[in-house]
Amino acid sequence: MSTISILDYNAKNDGSTNNAPFIQAAIDACHERGGGRLVIPAGGVFVSGTIELKDGVELYLENGSMLQASHREADYKLMSTAGEYGGNEGGFLIQAKNARNISIAGNGTIDGQAEAFIDGWWTDDGEYIKKPKRFRSRIIGLFSCRQIRISNLTIQNSAQWTCHLMGCEDVVVHAITILNGLDVPNCDGIDPDHCRNVRISDCHIEAGDDGIAIKTTRDFREYGPSENITITGCTIVSTSAAIKIGSETENDIRDVVVTGCIIRRSHRGLAIQLRDRGVVENILFTDCVVETRQFHPKYWGNGEAIYITAVRRHDDKEVGITRNIVCRNILFRGENGVFICGSEDARIGNVILDGVNGTISKTSRFPVDYHDLRPRHSQEHGGLVRGALSGITAYHVDGLVIRRSSICFEGEERHHWHHALSAKSVEPIDIEDFDGSAADPGKHDAICLG
Question: What are the tens digits of pLDDT across the range 231-283?
């Protein structure tokens, strides 16, 4: 395998020069030679705008090297329209389209500079969440690529989505560390979007938005479903959902396995959010430890360890189908438990909770007296519904099985919760070996079925 250094193409280690033209020339040369490794050398900080990977090229960051995203908007190329990103414009630091056999690897660091350039990306630091300007950079954006390997890197301070994979196949993301600000909006960690045959393993992610989110967004509908995805051995901290399926579900999402993950200090743990058309089916969450806490209501979430919902994003549009969900051997502690909520016209089918054991107690100063069904009614923050909480809450479900599970309430503020299990419009329901009492046995029954 041929090896090229970016220094051979006049890259400047001065912390200010836009090295994108030099790095791109090196990528092109490596590609023209039939592929190989392009090295970002140790001991340097190389600033760059958008660079585009090509077939057969491995971008390799040596230990002690840093590739730093430029804070100048003019240094970025827009591969797609702003509308495809929810109205927030941005360009990628590293991108590729229709590429094969590409890799981003090494023990170096990619830095998005979201924290260093407060005036560059934000209009206001905000009390709980930064307020963005029109344009923010992103780190990795791969469109319709095959045979992708991303491994061992540290990626930090992304101002928007960190690793967005759109219509990609045969993807391995292994042992990377993502360290984003916990007050940065839209700074998701890894987003497989209309992707197939994806393996995400042994990663550590900290993000102010979703840690890992599997989607099928509207603007890339032609890429088809997201399917055959495994997430294993990851540790995640998130101000939103640690691991989420949805909320964009314009195509199907199926055959997803999440196993052996540890979630800490997150606003929501394991989540399925159906809001659009499409089928979400055959999802397995197994052998995970989840710790949640309530946070400011500007962030979606209500401290749920497990969250499965199907409601309309827009009142005048249909919502799809959610079915065949298994949660097995989940140990959780937090300010909320399991929330399963379908709709009269979008009932959730076949949910199994097997070995789901949780302890619920009040630990934050933020209220937990509502159900969070955002986004709804065509509003990002439409869908907050006042209501009492229970350890396990289920509405509009066709087939719920609860086995070998338990709910325990702790602390003095038990008035926030009612039952260990509350189910309405759930038929059939099969309960076997369930251990749980009401938060306040003098006021409420342990199990309420309506």
Answer: 999 999 999 999 999 999 999 999 999 999 999 999 999 999 999 999 999 99
Q: Hey, how many other C-beta atoms are within 10 angstroms of the C-beta on 78?
A: 15
Residue 135: DSSP 8-state = B
> CA–CA separation, 207 vs 142, rounded Å?
20
Task: Map residue 84 onto helix, strand or coil.
Answer: helix
* pLDDT tens-digit series, residues 4-43: 999 999 999 999 999 999 999 999 999 999 999 999 999 9
Q: Which residues, listed in sequence order, are joined to residue 204 by a DSSP beta bridge? A: 177, 235
Decide if 90 contacts 114 (C-beta within 8 A).
no
Contact 69, 48 (CB under 8 A): yes
246 is written with which tokens? 């949805």
The CATH number, out of the four listed (2.60.40.10, 1.10.3330.10, 2.160.20.10, 3.60.20.10), of the domain defined by the range 1-136: 2.160.20.10
Q: Which residue in 250, 170, 180, 248 sits closest to 208, CA to CA?
A: 180
Number of DSSP helices (H) and strands (E) in the chain, helices first = 2, 38
Tell me how far apart the alpha carbons of residues 17 and 40 are, in angstroms, rounded to a whole number. 15
Euclidean distance between CA atoms 223 and 146, whole angstroms: 13
Tokens of 196: 């197939």
Q: To which residue do tokens 């407060």 refer?
A: 118
pTM: 0.97
Cα Rg, the chain, nearest whole Å? 22
- Which one-letter DSSP state was computed for residue 219? G
**Partners of 408 in the beta sheet?**
359
- Cα–Cα distance measured from residue 55 to residue 142, given in angstroms and rounded to the nearest whole number: 12
In contact, 354 and 327? CB cutoff 8 Å: yes
Q: List, in order, residues 6 or more apart from 258 with CB less than 8 Å away.
A: 230, 231, 232, 243, 270, 283, 284, 285, 286, 288
Q: How many CB atoms lie within 10 A of CB 441?
A: 12
Contact status, residue 428 vs residue 399, Cβ threshold 8 Å = yes
- Name which of 136, 53, 49 is nearest 87 in CA terms: 136
